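Hi F.,

I've been meaning to write this up properly since the lab meeting, where we talked about keeping a consistent format for the predictions we share between groups. The idea is simple: the sequence comes first, exactly as it goes in, then the structure tokens exactly as they come out, then a line or two of notes. No screenshots and no reformatting. I'm using this chain as the first example so we have something concrete to point to.
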Amino acid sequence: MAVLARTAEGHAPATSPVAGGELLAAITAELSAGGDLDAQLQQFLDPVVRLSGARGGMVRVLSDDGTELRLVGAQGLPAGACAATVSVGSHCGVCGAAVEGRCVRWADEAQACATHVSFHAGPPVQRSHRLLAVPLQHRGEVLGVYNLLLDAAQPGPAPELLAMLRSVGELLGLALHHARLEQVQLRAAVLHERQNMAAEVHDSLGQSLAFIKMRMPLLEDALNGGESARALRYCAELRGEATRAHASLRSVLTQLRAPMDAHGLLHALQVSAEQFRGRGDTTLDVVNEVPGLELDAQAQSQVFHIVQEALSNVSRHAQARHAWLHLARDASGQIEVRIEDDGTGLRPGPRGSTHYGLDIMRERAGRLGGQLDIGAREGGGTCVRLRFPSGTAT
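Output, unedited:
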């Protein structure tokens, strides 16, 4: 049997303005206090049922994808009816009409929903009962529905009752909107923290492990060749890197960030340059044209880890003889950091591979409000250029 859904028009007895006002005030106060929203939706179902003179009712929340209406609570209905309607389609019957029309709707016969809703589950629901659907909406977006089961003798709701039901729907719709917004923000915050943690682990432990992996074959060759002095040098390097990795791990576990040099960015870059020179045969020149550069702690960390990752890539992949680290202020006043090498240049990775390091470098540049460009260097090799607003500087 098809649902005969109509726009609700007033003929039912009017609710008391005082009672309706008290309900709206109670809903506002309860929602302001916070708490479990599903429990609050069910809590206010009983007074809505009583004030509207209904025999019972249900409250449903629209799924995130908008395809289903999930049952949150019921009042005065048979258990069988509730069990059969845990979830219904968002286009189903009078509920679907209320969702699509964004207004209060009612069906002439409750059993018109029997195919999907099973109101035939037993007394007190009869064929002649009417079903009212009140949308819970905010700024035209429907987020749920109240269902009210009316006696056969009741016509559509009176204007005063209809206005009260609309107000209840708007208040609860606002609460649902805020709850969904909080969920979206929470998911974004969790994703952001995961990305930050991945960046910190990559830029600390990842680089240390990569260096250890590079040095192990050299140590093995030195041992096999009986070159004890060379082997001892590699052992010392590995021991030092393992110590740094352990310190980084402790810092990440306690602070969720890799440690930053207490003496500031420029000192940290100088130390990193010295370590780079001691790890291979690549010559590194450092030119700093902004010796008085000062950044806040977060900006220092982002710049340092970008430079550190770029130098690590030179050591691991470039096969370069010469590299350059250049800090300057460009013509527009932005801070510019360039890391260049005369190596083999950019090479595409295996199909399906992910350049986590490059992605993390770009994310760090974004946190600076800047831009990271990676391309070919004039004369051969690779150029990594970071530019960010001088306003980041303190």
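Notes:
The first helix runs from residue 17 to 33.
Residues 1-14, 114-127 have pLDDT under 50 and may be disordered.

If this format works for you, I'll send the rest the same way.

G.
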